[in-house]
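Repro:
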Amino acid sequence: MRRGRNCAAALQVVSALPMRTVLLALPVAASTALALATLAIDHGLAAKAGEAAQSFGSDVISLRPGVRVIAGKSGSVNTLTEDDAQALRERLRGAKNVVATRIEDNVPTSFAGRSGVYRVFGVTPIWADVRQFGAERGQFLDQTDVDTSARVCVIGQTVARELFAGQEPVGQEVSINQVPFRVKGVLVSKGASPAEGDRDARIVVPITTFYNRLYRRLFVDQIVIQATSASHEALARLQAQIQTILRERHHISAGQTDDFTVRLPEKIAEESRGLSRSVLLLLLGLAVISAVVAALVIALVFQQAVRARRGEIGTRRALGATPSDILGQIWCEGLSASVLGGVLGVILGLVAAWALANWRQLAFGFDAVVAVVPLLLILVASLAGLFPAREA
């Protein structure tokens, strides 16, 4: 009964002093909302990273040009060739497929007065299986297209939407860098990735056509190796073989850095997170700081309140209230403000997480541990009210 009366008295004080209650609740709300939004971003990015790695292929290793330092300056240098790809096909043990790819960004493309710039890939037919990027409508490239350097292409969903505006693209003729191409098919949708951007804003042409009719350059921009096994050990062995073969072919001496970059599936997944771990830790650090600030605000406000209410406290003591009654009432006041802040923070955090998920096209959700966060912050904030309450 005494505890019930103490809590009832605390609620009367809280409702009678709305400005003080809001002042106490806001820091708790801010720290709770920030923590929930941060953890929601991390959950969404982790889910998207897994999707990106699965989309790229859990058994796929990507080779790209490396970085070299020349005369004190670092820069990208491309030394990968189709001969390198052929050597990897012949010498790698544990590789199912090796695919060389040529890539050009921001290629002007037009159809019937509509135009845009897109990423163009020069590939072979096996690329569709290795990258899990086949045709949704029409057909993908075949070996005859490669052998004859055919002016045919397969376009992404974004390209189809922007250039054709509802018309059927298959069979139509588009201009790619002022060269006419017949649209043979439309790629399956892959969506956006922080590491690759809009993966539907791409055009695929035969690799020989890319070289003979669009961009006549010697080097390839990417070599993709599909392993026979997706296990970490198998991929690590394959990576070691790749480095040995290419260092030998490129005449790289011991102690010199590679002039190529090997990207394993887990590295691709990490790059696809978009936000780094350091940024997420920074946001969580801000949430912790907000919680500390909330505790300090509650402690300071209640310390001042206790000093200002000495007359009231003395009257209650004279009427028979024990020190534990006074302590319980003041602690209930702090707990009420903390719970109000926690509820408000959960609402704000959910709204912020939902908005960020829609903006970044992330999965909206939380891990189970997130449910504990508001409770911990409420507990910390309410405990902060105990110290000034003891002065009463």
